[in-house]
Predict the structure.
Amino acid sequence: MCRAFWHSALGGLLFLASAASSQAACCYFSAKNADILQPAQKVFLTYDPAEKVETFTVQPKFEGNALDFGMVIPTPTQPKLHEMPRDFFKHLAVYTILKKREFPHSKLLPIFAPPPGVMPANGAVYATAGAEPASPAAIAPPPVRVLEAGLVGSLDYKIIEADRADALFSWLKDHKYSYSGDEASLNFYVQKKWLFTVMKIDTMQMKRNKDGAFAGEVTPTRFQFASEKFIYPLKITQISVKDKTEALFYVQAPYKCDLQGDFSYQMTWIPMLQAGSGCMPSGLPGGGGEWLKDFQPQQQVLLQRAQGLGFNFVAGQRPQPGKGGRIPTTMEWARKLSKSDVQVVRSEAPYSEKAPNVDEGFTQADVNDPQRREAIFKVINARLNKSRQERPLGYLVREAPKEDVAALAQLAGHLQEGKFVTKFRKIFLKDEMNEDLVIIPARYNDAEDKSEYEEILPVSPP
């Protein structure tokens, strides 16, 4: 399992194969005739630290041959469920395409050199409520209680509260679920008094591979709940991973976010900024230079720790496994959303800048005319000089199909002005998933990491 995974985010999901038949009686990776695999998952998380409210939106991708199956998602408090646009994560991917710096150039002039001190980019992309409980004095409540049941999109769900892991384990079995994990994986959350949302998946809505197995993604669902910490249920996913799984997080909060300890993206972000500062005479964009300065007292400690883990930064390359096969977290995109950023999703602001066409109005045939050539070259050079004066650092451009840009409207209301969106990737080994993830503000002592990453750097990986 977990071979060439999507650049996707890992959700706290535990998969269950429904025992609709004797052939679908085992968990997704251990059944002989009813295997269900999770080759990818994407997640969008938000947190309001003042209100202590968290949301995460998940869209798992499934492969397998069970007739039907389900998933269990633990949360610290009872969630509210909302259906999201089916292509929500595609829209996020389009919205966070990195920009490259482009300079106006002429295809008609014999030679064009960029303005001194400017390095042009080469374009390489390096439920309904349950019954009223009886009085405690009259009868003890059952150890497993269904708090809510209903539909979200096309998915049936139940929100469950359990006092004991063994009782929950039995409940799953009694309700025709065959759970591949042990009671200990459930007990981790039962002891924390978390709740469990069970959702059933209809594989008949999925496509079939050539071998007859099902493959597809379910409609993404948003979970909103109260939480004292910005936390993500990682441990429960451990049982569905053979050796490793890749995760792509989109995190929106009032501040830039990071993961704790050795999971921090600073392990690769700081070396990349250091390398980039040496080949950008005009300085690092997005406040990268300021963050390097603020982080300077800790740089040597961080780099020594990264070296000890076998994390070696190589410009223009994705990180390779270090000691024990561990791979560091990488920054993919980061920006504090401005008014114009939010207007992009409503087509009220351009998706990309556009470098002017300095050859406009002229053709190769025109410049082949000896009587017109010099006058045309004079006009083109005047246009080039004008653009260099107005935009000495060039234009930030990116490309996406027009229909994909128009579809960004489905992100309206989800991306919020003044909030920081941090996108980072982490490949988790199975033994790195022993605890849930705590998402923290990106900072060092009193310095807050406000550095943005929306522009490809000369040292950016592909």
User: Anything to note?
Assistant: The first strand starts at residue 14 and ends at 18. Confidence is low (pLDDT under 50) at residues 1-39, 112-137. DSSP finds nine helices and 23 strands in the chain. The CA atoms of residues 2 and 457 lie 30 Å apart.
